[in-house]
Amino acid sequence: LQLFWLGELDECLEVAEKGLSMDGDNWELLNLKGLASKKAGMPEVAEKTLEKAVRVKDDEPDLYNNLGSVLIENRKLERAISVIKEGIELDGGNSNLFRNAASASLAMGDIESAAVFINRAKEIDPFIAEVHAISAEVQLRSGDREGALEDLKKIDFLPEISLKVCLKAVQIYVEMDKVEQAEKILNMASETYPGDMDILYLKGKIAEMKNIVSEALSIYRKLADMRPHDAEIRNCMGCVYEKKGELDRALECFQKARELNPHNSRIDLNIGIIYEKMGREEQAEEIFRRVVEVDSGPSQAYNVYGCFLARNGRYGEAIRSFTSFIEHEPGNLQGYLNLGRVCEEMNLPDKAVEIYRSIPVPEPEKLPPVKERLDSLSEAVPAD
User: Fold this and answer.
1) Is the pLDDT of residue 200 over 90?
2) For position 315, what pLDDT does the model report?
3) pLDDT tens across 104-157, in order?
4) 316 Cβ contact partners less than 8 Å away, ≥ 6 residues apart
5) pLDDT tens digits along 316-326
């Protein structure tokens, strides 16, 4: 256990294996081996080990929590929810279980359940920073940006802010285009965790947001040397090359990323986008269609495919795709804007106005992009 907390994972696993050779059903050693395997980047070993630990000691709630966490990482989300709920039945006051249940629900796109779980976690222990970080993401996915910002502000006043929480907060700020707040947290995290590669990665993302592409590319190249088997870094490099208009190099990066992680639908979407920009539309549509037909594909795939269909004048199909996107992400403004613009293209201004005004936030007509569209339609559609 001491080796685990010191980060000496190889030695930790070696000692755990020695103990298990003497007592193969020791649930504490199985738990430790599972946790160390997960942290060492061996999620399949971690899952198998923690499954055994649960069988050996089926009345220990923390084992269900740890197994659920690994199952989330392995994208076995329904199984994760089932396991975590078993743990909750054993200990309904364990905030970690509710927190991980919220994370799994988020990953499945079940925002309503995620909100129930994370609110219960906040009731049990309101002083855990990670709870508020997950709550902020739930709020954002629900369309409540102000609520998300309130949760993130609470983190500043809580003790023991882990690197994981810092990174989550930065990611949410980045998604909300709050670059200044993201940089502030990132700089603080850099002082506390110097040399951390995840922090360097997020610095690259912020450089991308600020359109400093040379700096972003320099960071990603450095990370690619440090993590040659990391598909996400190659994917990021491809995005930067796309911004630079270097489509061949972008495609090369995305294809390398897919070799490293053939099951990442976001990478496939990026390849499809490049194909379309290259004029290879049949190949692009083949990829878009395949991704939206995969149950585990990202909800953003419906938006990307809808844009492709709209650009090709296939408005009826585009409407169905954007509608599916909104059903999966009811708080995502872009889906409503895209759906409204298609209605405008189809000469249905009254329907477009209805869509813009239905965005699930207080006074959507005051949002700058929505106001712009409503102003442009003011002559075509009389005010209420």
Assistant:
1) no
2) 96
3) 998 887 888 999 999 999 999 888 888 999 999 998 888 788 889 999 888 877
4) none
5) 999 999 999 99
Phi-psi region of 211 (alpha: psi -120 to 50; beta: other; left: phi over 0): left
Cα-Cα-Cα-Cα dihedral sign, residues 169, 171, 173, 179: positive
Joined together, the tokens standing for residue 90 give: 């054993």
How far CA 56 is from CA of 12, 28, 89, in Å, comes to: 21, 10, 18
Cα separation, 4 vs 17, in Å, equals: 13
> Which comes out higher in pLDDT, residue 217 or 77?
217
CA distance 239 to 258: 14
Residues whose CB is less than 8 angstroms from the CB of residue 138 and which lie 6 or more positions away in sequence, other chains included: 102, 106, 111, 114, 115, 118
pLDDT value, residue 114 = 92
* CA torsion, ordered 263, 266, 269, 270, to nearest 10 deg: -110
Residue 16 dihedral angles phi and psi, to the nearest 5°: -60, -40
User: What's the whole-number mean pLDDT along residues 223-252?
Assistant: 92
Q: Residue 384: what pLDDT?
A: 52
Which residue has 């995840």 as its token pair? Answer: 198
- 272 pLDDT exceeds 80? yes
